[in-house]
Specification:
single chain; mainly beta; Porin; 5% helix; globular
């Protein structure tokens, strides 16, 4: 079986495990990272394991006479609660593909992505209630194929913040600073981003609206990206440890993909 199919099969098996309800008395509310571009401020309970799977993620961009599409299949994140205020994560994309079209010709690059290691430390309210604050350092190892991965080590820091606006509506912020590879692969530079959004709970459905912006100060030319993002997450009644999600992201600048879509699921054990 191909590696990509193995990952998808693993994800399907994890979701199938939701068929049996589990007693979750005493645990914090279910808090997936998906969907959206920001990071939540909540932290998993110690000893709790969670799997998050991006079944399909795709982006489409037209630049002048050319265009490109990028696809990621089986985007996988494994999360584990280490202490009451600290969790660890490992994220990896088993298959990604970029297709570029220009002058009637098409070029294609595909392969595995980089491997990312993450820690999330809660500074206030690890269950995400009230005003909740966390710090999330991460580092990416260059395991990806050239043209798919970054081509070198990268890292950064996110500071997720959340606060209730009303009983049903919450505000989330995720400022981020990164050290990323130069376009020519010879060095590194800084990049900044911010995701700011609101979410509303409507029964088993969570609706989200988000604005995201980023500045990549590459020596070869600064990139400015921005998008408006709409997300939907559904927790099936009776299955509090399972969530299915959908997101659509519309680009607002020339450097941003015109359209991005994602479909995935999360499962807590």
């Amino acid at each position: 079986m191909r590696p990509t199919l193995k990952v998808l099969a693993l994800g399907a098996a994890c979701m199938a495990g939701a068929a049996q309800a589990q007693d979750r008395e005493g645990l914090r509310d279910f808090c997936p990272d998906r969907p959206g571009k920001g990071s939540p401020s909540c932290v998993l309970d110690a000893g709790v394991f969670q799997v998050e799977l991006g079944a399909v993620e795709a982006s489409f961009q037209r630049a002048g006479p050319g265009s490109s599409e990028t696809y990621a299949i089986g985007d996988l994140a494994l999360r584990l609660g280490l202490t009451p205020t600290l969790e660890g994560q490992i994220a990896w994309t088993p298959y990604a593909e970029t297709r570029s079209h220009a002058g009637g010709a098409t070029s294609r690059t595909s392969g595995v992505g980089d491997l990312t290691f993450v820690l999330r430390k809660s500074l206030r309210n690890p269950d995400g209630s009230g005003v909740s604050v966390a710090l999330q350092p991460f580092v990416s190892a260059p395991t990806g194929k050239r043209g798919v991965g970054a081509g070198g080590w990268q890292g950064g820091l996110i500071a997720p913040i959340s606060a209730p606006l009303t009983q049903e509506v919450a505000l989330g912020l995720a400022p981020e600073v990164d050290i990323v590879r130069d376009a020519d692969g010879r060095g590194t530079h800084l990049a900044w981003s911010l995701a700011a959004g609101v979410s509303r709970q409507v029964g088993p459905v969570t609706l989200g609206a988000e604005l995201w912006g980023a500045i990549d100060d590459d020596p070869a030319g600064e990139l400015r990206q921005a998008s408006v993002d709409l997300t939907l997450a559904w927790t099936p009644p009776g299955y509090e440890d399972l969530q299915f999600d959908f997101g659509v992201y519309g680009g607002l600048t020339a450097d941003t993909p015109d359209l991005e879509v994602s479909v995935g699921a999360s499962r807590r054990f």
